[in-house]
Amino acid sequence: MSKAIIVGASSGIGLEVARLFIQRGWTVGVAARRLDLLQTIGAADVEQIDVTSADAPEKLMQLVDRLGGMDLFFYASGIGKQNRELTPDIELATVETNGLGFTRMIGCAYRFFAQQGRGHIAAITSIAGTKGLGPAPAYSATKAMQNVYLQALEQQANARKLDIRFTDIRPGFVDTALLSGSFHYPMMLKPQAVAREIVSAIEHHKHIRVIDWKYRILTAVWRRIPRCIWRRIKL
Ligand SMILES: NC(=O)c1ccc[n+]([C@@H]2O[C@H](COP(=O)([O-])OP(=O)(O)OC[C@H]3O[C@@H](n4cnc5c(N)ncnc54)[C@H](OP(=O)(O)O)[C@@H]3O)[C@@H](O)[C@H]2O)c1
User: Fold this and answer.
1) 216 is a domain residue
2) What CATH number corresponds to the domain at position 114?
3) Among 7, 35, 55, 124, which residue has the most ligand 1 atoms within 8 Å of its CB, making it the best to mutate?
């Protein structure tokens, strides 16, 4: 493994993961919309990609060509907002980025690895996909979709005898721009620490990694809460 492409590397968790892979001597290509930020990371190559745009797969493949191949596709792009008023623009933009954008880019990487005969797809989803979260309906629903999509691809790859590995990374609250705003978030994690756990999970070929241990306990409890109680909980 030596060549990684990181989509969503311009800030937050994706940026920290890119830095770690560069430090480890990987050849790293980075992408996102904010080209100026990407250019400061010290990656081998950069590409401006908007995952909501139809030309995003073509741009990803151009980056792969320039890098001379791809062993790891790491997907960190995403948006998320609390939306208790259910403002349509917020809900629809979230579905467009986290649903359509995710499907577009993960699908492109999967087809590339299927043709190549091997590869590793890792994506940051979230613990928010564990249950429907009232304060952020589109966010939690799209994260659940991402969890299930990766599970489906993993099964399909096995059935097709493709040597493609998958790592579904599910962090709890992380101190990044995504959570900036007036809300208070408990049990906040540092993006650098989260990035270290992510790289370790990828290196150890983990299928699913909830970050960190406190959130592993929390999600295990959440999963056991029956629907008749869950719908009465105020988050
Ligand atoms: N922060 C948390 O508490 C938390 C918890 C669990 C999971 N996550 C997930 O972690 C991932 C990274 O988020 P973060 O917390 O690191 O937030 P962040 O700092 O806001 O990073 C988001 C990244 O996604 C990219 N992005 C957003 N829309 C894009 C688009 N249309 N096309 C291409 N790239 C796009 C951004 O780049 P540009 O704006 O330059 O395009 C940026 O690099 C997200 O999927 C998020 O849902 C975050």
Assistant:
1) yes
2) 3.40.50.720
3) 124
